[in-house]
């Protein structure tokens, strides 16, 4: 049986994973309280579930075409997904975006992986502001939805770019609010060394400053 190739960015990730053990985001937690302690494990599960749903929604869409893509490619990509969680209260409680970026860049630089892979080019920050939007997030409700991508403007995490190119004449701050549902889309958008500012510029005013995909 012949299969069509998946979208270019998805095919690129699958090819890269022949030489990388896994892919995914590093997630920094900067808010620590009893409420955060209770909610954080569920939030992590929700973020993973959002990536999985978006990935397999893409798979379903392209599988219906003739010829369809090979679902095994998507299964293999998901099997290699692994988020890395950093939640050291002593070091990161109340930490600013800039201090998280400094730490992330130092870790990546120390591993000799600057601009090597998307996992090394951006990371997620869950601060108090983000946490409050995610308290009612439900994996079960997400999984009960249909396969279509849903624009979500009320829940967000903050995604920062390592070594961003900042211009004094524009307003891109080197990070942006991103809907958890758009994390897979953002990963693809950042492929080929693309700058986060290009995704940030796609944020429509009606979305309240939250990146929800193209």
UniProtKB/TrEMBL annotation:
<protein>
    <submittedName>
        <fullName>Uncharacterized protein</fullName>
    </submittedName>
</protein>
């Amino acid at each position: 049986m012949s299969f069509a190739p998946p979208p270019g960015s998805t095919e690129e990730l699958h090819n890269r994973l022949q030489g990388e053990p896994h892919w995914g985001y590093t997630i920094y937690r900067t808010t620590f309280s009893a409420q955060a302690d209770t909610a954080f494990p569920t939030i992590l599960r929700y973020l993973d579930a959002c990536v999985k749903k978006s990935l397999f929604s893409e798979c379903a869409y392209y599988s219906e075409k003739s010829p369809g893509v090979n679902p095994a490619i998507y299964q293999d990509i998901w099997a290699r997904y692994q988020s890395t969680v950093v939640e050291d209260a002593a070091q990161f409680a109340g930490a600013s975006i800039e201090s998280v970026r400094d730490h992330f860049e130092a870790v990546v630089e120390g591993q000799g992986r600057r601009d090597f892979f998307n996992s090394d080019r951006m990371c997620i920050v869950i601060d108090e502001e983000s946490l409050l939007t995610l308290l009612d997030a439900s994996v079960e409700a997400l999984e009960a939805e249909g396969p279509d991508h849903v624009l979500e403007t009320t829940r967000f995490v903050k995604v920062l770019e390592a070594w961003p190119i900042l211009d004094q004449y524009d307003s891109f701050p080197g990070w942006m609010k991103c809907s958890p549902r758009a994390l897979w889309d953002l990963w693809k958008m950042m492929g080929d060394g693309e700058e986060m500012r290009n995704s940030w510029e796609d944020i429509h005013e009606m979305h309240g400053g939250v990146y929800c995909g193209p």
